[in-house]
Amino acid sequence: MASVKLRDVNKIYPNGLHALHDINLDIEEGEFMVVVGPSGCAKSTMLRMIAGLENISSGELTIADKICNDVQPKDRGIAMVFQNYALYPHMTVYENMAFGLKVAKKTKAEIALRVHEAAELLEITELLQRKPKEMSGGQCQRVALGRAMVRKPAVFLFDEPLSNLDAKLRVSMRLRISKLHQQLREAGKPATMIYVTHDQVEAMTMGERVCILRKGEIMQVDRPLNVYHHPRNKFVAEFIGSPAMNLFTARVERFGDQIVLRCGEHIFSLPEDKSTKAQHYLGQEIYFGIRPEDININAKNTINSLSSKITRVDAMGADEYIHFTMAGQQVICKQPNPEGETNINSNYQFYFNMDKCHLFDRETEKNIL
In terms of Cα–Cα distance, which of 169, 163, 193 is closest to 84? Predict the structure, then answer.
């Protein structure tokens, strides 16, 4: 295992495109780090720079405390698992997994030992004599993972490895990769894993920490639940969470001895801890955010509640996503699926739990709390 550190790393292409901006990121030995962001945010570019498949324009990359800017990919102690498996179609599973070891001139006995160890861990021993065309996508991805494992790399790199799989297989493979990381740690062979995805569910369920990228810049690095409950800025708040956080423009005002938010004709009272921060914005507009699960329907509260007509209901099995409007804007409320029917075009009372709200600076979009 090895730590990976990026210091002021930039990537500028010959055409002037500045893909990565001053990236500073520390990935500890044995850590499972997920890099997540929308398409085009340069997350795969960052992974390829760690692998040595892309040059670093400026800054410093260290792997296991060794500067690797100019080190060849084969000498970095990394193994990469790609989205498209990249298996040799004419070779068996055993031959695909053994290929890199043969190139490295390992003995037949050592190759056999490593291949069978990895196959057993990934539960693909019975597939060793099959060829890729005889297997499912999930099986092929396990073989690709096994091929990386047999090299015993210091760092595993995953570039959206589950994108080609159907929803059920993605869930299964997420669990398998997370379990593999845990098994290696328990066996005293912890592996550093860096996993790139655009899927926030993968990020939240797999990563010990999550690095969120936007347009080549790091927005936040933290544990998944901290990212969810304490987003550093408006982008993170919107990107993490499904359904997405409800966001409104609100004016900070004083109402008697209270600090409140005014959204159109609606007024929301802030709790004391949030009032202390918000009072610096008196008379100004800010962004006010609240997650769908922090809005309650049929509430008996009169403070911080409003009456609105339901415009749509999405039944999602155990939950319902209820759509209504506030100040001319669509709002989503998430609640457990009730036994009775929620009626569209009927008025209901909606309570906003302001203890859970988020406030963002209008200009910088930073979380002011």
Answer: 163
Q: Residue 278: which H helix or E strand, with range?
A: helix 272-278
Query: Could you tell me if 239 and 200 are in contact, meaning their C-beta atoms sit under 8 angstroms apart?
Result: yes
Which is nearest to 204 in space by CA: 164, 231, 185?
Answer: 231
Q: What is the pLDDT of residue 165?
A: 83
**CATH class assigned to 4-239:** alpha beta
C-alpha 207/C-alpha 224 separation (Å) is 7
Q: Is 281 left (phi over 0), alpha (psi -120 to 50) or beta?
A: alpha
Phi and psi, residue 88, nearest 5°:
-75, 120
The list of the chain residues with pLDDT below 50 reads none
What is the distance between the alpha carbons of residues 345 and 324, in angstroms, rounded to a whole number? 9
pLDDT number for residue 90: 95
What residue spans define the domains of the chain? 4-239, 246-360
Q: Whole-structure pTM over 0.85, yes or no?
A: yes
SS3 196: strand
pLDDT of the residue at 320: 92
What DSSP letter does each residue of 306-367 carry, written as one string?
EEEEEEEEEEETTEEEEEEEETTEEEEEEEEPPSSPPPTT-EEEEEE-GGG-EEE-TTT-BB
H/E element, 7? strand 4-12
Q: So what's the pLDDT on residue 106?
A: 93
Query: What is the pLDDT, as a whole number, of residue 325?
Result: 95
* HSE-CB of 10 using CA atoms within 13 angstroms: 12
Helix (H) or strand (E) holding 122: helix 108-122
- What is the distance between the alpha carbons of residues 141 and 127, in angstroms, rounded to a whole number? 12
Q: Which CATH number fits domain 246-360: 3.40.50.360, 2.40.50.140, 3.30.70.100, 1.10.443.10?
A: 2.40.50.140
